[in-house]
Amino acid sequence: MISNYLKFILIYPIILIIKLYQVLLSPIIKTNCRFSPSCSEYAIIALKEHGLVKGFYLSILRILRCNPFGNHGYDPVPKKTSRNT
């Protein structure tokens, strides 16, 4: 119960900022992400699946890979692994 509340308090404001970027700024900037899903969608998925710290870390790594000299194509968020395996 507490973890869901903390997730809502910590992660969803960041997701809201990303969504605002997608709706307000992305159409004006008119840049195309080299990857699928887009970097902003990747960040939302990473935050929801991995939490604030690791999701933010994965998002930053993805943004750094998204450049003219980097790769392109399908690049999904890595699956969450169990600590027991």
Structure description:
Helix 2 links the parallel strand 1 (35-36) and strand 2 (73-74). The chain has 85 residues and is mainly alpha-helical. The protein has one domain (2-72). Helices cover 65% and strands 5% of the residues. The protein starts with a helix and ends in an 11-residue tail after the last strand. The radius of gyration is 14 Å and the shape is flat. Helix 1 (2-29) packs across helix 2 (39-65). A two-stranded parallel sheet has the order 1-2. The protein contains two helices and two strands.
Tell me the overall shape. Answer: flat
Lateral strand order in the biggest sheet = 1-2
Q: Total domains, how many? A: 1
What order do the SSEs take from the amino end to the carboxyl end, as H and E?
Answer: HEHE
Radius of gyration: 14 Å
Brief descriptors of the model:
85 residues; mainly alpha; two-stranded parallel sheet; 2 helices; flat
Quick summary:
This protein is mainly α. 65% of the residues lie in helices and 5% in strands.
Q: What's the arrangement of secondary structure elements?
A:
Layout: H1 2-29, E1 35-36, H2 39-65, E2 73-74
Parallel strand pairs: 1-2
